[in-house]
Amino acid sequence: MKNTFKILSVSFLSIFLIACSGKSEDAVSTEDLFPAETLLVDNEYPELDSVAVDILEKFRICALLDSTRGLPLCEAKNFRIFKYQPEKSLESGFIVEMVPGLFGAPVHQVVVIENVFGKYKIVNQYLGYLLEMRTTKSGYNDLLIAYDDPEIGVVAIKHVWSVDKYDLADVEEINDHYIKPELKDSINNILLPAFTAGH
Q: In 28-141, where does DSSP find H-type helix?
């Protein structure tokens, strides 16, 4: 009983202090908090889902059979598939990451394919590779994509879903070092407008 009273007392005191603090207008309600999860992208190349393979073949990104068309085979050694809408099936859209060397690109490519009113469409294509995906309240994951810059090194940029495609949002890391908050605006204002590694 004493322990229960202590817990109730501490809870009441916390609520009272929050309610009486001068920061009540800035406080975020628990309803507004979203329990985001972060998926770190590893180096595994699992078997490709047949739904995604069928769509990739229609886009002529890969071929099921070795042919003279010059397309890479729809195999896990060439491609990885990711869901960017965790609550939906692959039929709603997916991300395909390609290994370097495909279609003349010396680096990885990230292509976002979206089902728009029953028709598949490539909505984004980037010359980079996925580092992380983070769930959001909108149902579309935020993407952290790394880009190799010959002058700077590896730049990791956060992309967020905006209406019907991904847009650049924030430079988070350079060469595995997080950007200091006081430098964020300056770096974003320099690097984001100069971005040329996709759309």
A: 50-58
Determine the Cα–Cα distance for residues 63 and 56; give it in Å rounded to an integer.
8
Question: Strand order of the sheet with strand 38-40?
Answer: 38-40, 129-134, 142-149, 153-162, 165-174, 177-178
Indicate if the pLDDT at residue 46 is higher than 90.
Answer: yes
Nearest CA among 113, 119, 132 for reference residue 61: 113
Helices (H) and strands (E) in the chain, counts: 3, 10
Answer for the pair 45, 137: CB distance below 8 angstroms, yes or no.
Answer: no
pLDDT of residue 70: 83
* Partners of residue 149 on adjacent β-strands: 153
> What pLDDT does residue 33 have?
73
Give the strands of the sheet with 109-116, arranged side by side.
Answer: 79-82, 93-98, 109-116, 119-126
Q: Residue 130: what residue type?
A: L
What percent of the chain is helix, strand and coil (3-state, nearest 5)? Answer: 25, 35, 45
Return d(Cα 98, Cα 80) in angstroms, integer. 7
Q: pLDDT tens digits for 2-32?
A: 333 333 333 322 322 233 334 334 444 455 6
Cα separations in angstroms, 69 against 50, 64, 85, 170: 21, 11, 32, 39
